[in-house]
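[#protein-structures] MJ: dropping Plasma membrane H+-ATPase here for a structure pass
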Amino acid sequence: DVLCSDKTGTLTLNKLTVDKNLIEVFAKGVDPDTVVLMAARASRTENQDAIDSAIVGMLADPKEARSGIQEVHFLPFNPTDKRTALTYIDSEGRMHRVSKGAPEQILNPAHNKSEIERRVHAVIDKFAERGLRSLAVAYQEVPEGRKESPGGPWQFIGLMPLFDPPRHDSAETIRRALNLGVNVKMITGDQFAIGKETGRRLGMGINMYPSSALLGQNKDESIAALPVDELIEKADGFAGVFPEHKYEIVKRLQARKHICGMTGDGVN
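AK: finished. structure tokens for Plasma membrane H+-ATPase:
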């Protein structure tokens, strides 16, 4: 009687587009084309996921993603770190590292985090209100010249907006499920405002909560007094979740005697 659904690729197409005109630059001497190139370097050039494919596809020639550099080490995406990185050597023999991923994961190690944090969050919120996900890009030099080296200070260089359109049949499928008495909850790793906007577009309700609410850390007094089990019961969805949250939500619903399904990537 309850169906928990991932958002990306389940309720949405996972066919991402990036509007280059909306890219926000955060470093001196950098333009949107540089942000795209750095993001493309931090992408796989084969066996791509939807984000890699959208970004590399923005280059005039996909080969630019590796031209003039020698790849040393690629760190693939995983659901915990939520970022990718490429360590490479340029044509002059110097080592560099680029990374792209969830904004918080890219912002945290930035050397000037305190100076740019407010603007980064303002841009993320601006994108999210339009249903756009944010992808952050950063760069560092690795003067030690070894792939294991932590490298120099991380430069946060830009934020890119990603649009992932809802699947054409999602709203109808959700409507039919609700009519059959199945309660549909969206559980997404994406940012809160995006989850809410996607839920609104799909007619799922906007009773959406951040993952912090699951840990009893919610600042909203209207739900602070609610036990977590009841919060999960009444919510239309949760955003900013990690795989362990998905598992916990299903476990708690089952403990309340719900027959609970999970569709999408499961717990990743």
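MJ: nice. The chain is about 30% helix and 25% strand.
AK: one more thing. The first helix runs from residue 32 to 41.
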